[in-house]
């Protein structure tokens, strides 16, 4: 669609990303093609509830438009929002969401600098997201993951009275969300506004949508507040979206606890066929599954069927006439409902610098980012062998006395090659576009790494290839290893010690005869808040 610079901005926010709707510049956030903009403006509903072209393409086609939005603008919007004066005599609660796969989180150390001394913050609650993607490598692995997040907070200077709590959740499958809502209602109650913060692609919009349909949100709000656009493309939230927080009175907390107790007595056999279908689908997507319910449901009036009797009768010489669709009025909050409301805001994602996702196209991002439970792949390597992850990374095994075991943790769609030597051109899925795309893709840059093994069942370290995945290295105790790892120029390679999943190499099948690889093995999924039936 064409743009029309002569038309002034609408003053109405996109219900998907929060940007102001306009038709002036197709490269700016909030753009709507001029033809569509005019038709919406002239309709009965107007632009209220409409989405911009970018959100439409993200939601319906999974495509992302390249926008002229520098990282400085993201930070400026976020900084201005956090520096608002307290509306209720108390500072805001920051709900910082980090991707546990990305530990150490690249944005967490910048948080204090972003806030500054003049930001009225009363507390910080750190939430580790996407735990559903990681298999349990040993008993108590969730507790170990939580300690890793706590240690990351301490290293970033976030401790003491400022740090309210650390939680682990999956915004996608619902695991841990009921506990998060309970923590928010017990510790924070309804003292002030809440801001969702986090790096791009940490899952903020997914969490925002889940909380919108939970006991943390006013019961009528889902009918009046649009859901945030969810997509794997980094930076999908461009401005501030919000919903009103429910006041957790003693009666409401009691009724909520009774609902949770009742649901905890159910088994999978007690679920409806539709609930079982949804549960089985979530089990395929993640290792840890939960459910987000609602205690306070708004009673909706039954729809009244209206018809025109004259439209039901017509002669055999006439075609039946169809009446135009009746406009459905959108739900709106009254002044009394929101005059003293506390709000939960979804903020723009903080752009991660030196990230491999920044050099990928939208189709390539979909291939790289894991969306389902990750199944590790384990290999036995000898000196001179190489792990080659398309054009996103490479690990050379240069020197050691014996073989070593490596477990590769990647998206299931990532192509993997294990050549004993390099020669010629290797074609792979990422980057896409053949030789022309490879010419503009940044070259791989090496970094030498020396490690000392601690045992054949426990990894000594992870070699994290930016956001493309990581390699967990296992070797005999006291065995020295010399490795050379490569990542695209301009991206960050991290040696993660201790490793995120130290016993990940034990999750494997039998060795494939005549191969360096083991067969893969997927552990079973765990369902939260459901009784086990005792069946195998």
From TrEMBL:
The gene is Noa1. This is NOA1 protein. It comes from the Eukaryota. The lineage of its organism: Eukaryota, Metazoa, Chordata, Craniata, Vertebrata. One of its GO terms (molecular function) is GTP binding. Residues 194-244 form the G domain. Gene3D superfamilies: P-loop containing nucleotide triphosphate hydrolases (3.40.50.300). SUPFAM superfamilies: P-loop containing nucleoside triphosphate hydrolases.
């Amino acid at each position: 669609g064409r743009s029309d610079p002569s038309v002034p901005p609408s003053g109405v926010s996109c219900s998907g990303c929060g940007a102001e709707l306009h038709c002036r510049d197709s490269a700016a956030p909030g753009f709507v093609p001029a033809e569509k903009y005019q038709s919406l403006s002239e309709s009965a509903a107007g632009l209220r509830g409409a989405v911009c072209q970018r959100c439409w393409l993200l939601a319906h086609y999974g495509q992302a438009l390249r926008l002229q939005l520098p990282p400085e603008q993201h930070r400026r919007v976020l900084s201005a929002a956090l520096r608002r004066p307290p509306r209720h005599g108390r500072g805001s609660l920051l709900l910082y969401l980090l991707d546990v796969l990305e530990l150490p989180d690249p944005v967490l150390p910048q948080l204090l600098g972003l806030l500054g001394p003049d930001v009225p913050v009363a507390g910080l609650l750190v939430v580790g997201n996407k735990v559903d993607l990681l298999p349990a490598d040993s008993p108590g692995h969730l507790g170990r993951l939580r300690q890793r997040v706590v240690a990351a907070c301490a290293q970033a200077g976030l401790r003491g009275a400022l740090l309210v709590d650390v939680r682990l959740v999956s915004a996608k499958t619902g695991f841990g969300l009921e506990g998060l809502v309970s923590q928010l209602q017990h510790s924070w109650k309804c003292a002030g506004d809440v801001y969702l913060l986090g790096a791009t692609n940490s899952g903020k919009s997914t969490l925002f949508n889940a909380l919108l349909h939970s006991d943390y949100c006013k019961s009528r709000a889902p009918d009046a507040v649009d859901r945030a656009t969810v997509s794997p493309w980094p930076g999908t939230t461009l401005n501030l979206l919000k919903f009103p927080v429910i006041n957790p009175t003693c009666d409401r907390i009691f009724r909520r606890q009774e609902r949770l107790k009742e649901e905890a007595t159910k088994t999978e056999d007690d679920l409806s066929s539709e609930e079982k279908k949804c549960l089985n689908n979530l089990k395929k997507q993640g290792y840890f599954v939960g459910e987000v319910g609602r205690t306070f449901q708004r009673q909706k009036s039954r729809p009244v069927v209206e018809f025109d009797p004259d439209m039901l009768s017509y002669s055999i010489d006439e075609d039946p006439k169809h009446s135009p669709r009746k406009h459905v009025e959108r739900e709106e909050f009254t002044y009394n409902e929101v005059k003293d409301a506390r709000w939960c805001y979804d903020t723009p994602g903080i752009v991660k610098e030196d990230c491999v996702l920044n050099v990928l196209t939208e189709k390539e991002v979909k291939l790289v980012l894991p969306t389902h439970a990750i199944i590790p792949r384990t290999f036995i390597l000898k000196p001179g062998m190489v792990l080659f992850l398309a054009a996103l990374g490479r690990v050379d095994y240069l020197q050691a006395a014996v073989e070593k075991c490596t477990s590769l943790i990647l998206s299931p769609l990532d192509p993997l090659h294990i050549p004993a030597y390099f020669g010629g051109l290797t074609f792979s899925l990422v980057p896409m576009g053949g030789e022309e795309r490879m010419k503009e893709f940044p070259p791989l840059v090496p970094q030498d790494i020396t490690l000392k093994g601690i045992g054949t069942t426990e990894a000594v370290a992870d070699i994290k290839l930016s956001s493309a995945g990581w390699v967990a290295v296992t070797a005999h105790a006291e065995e020295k290893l010399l490795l050379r790892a490569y990542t695209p120029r301009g991206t960050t390679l991290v040696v993660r010690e201790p490793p995120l999943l130290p016993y990940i190499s034990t999750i494997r099948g039998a060795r494939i005869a005549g191969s360096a690889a083991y067969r893969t093995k997927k552990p079973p999924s765990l369902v939260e808040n459901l009784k086990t039936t005792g069946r195998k």
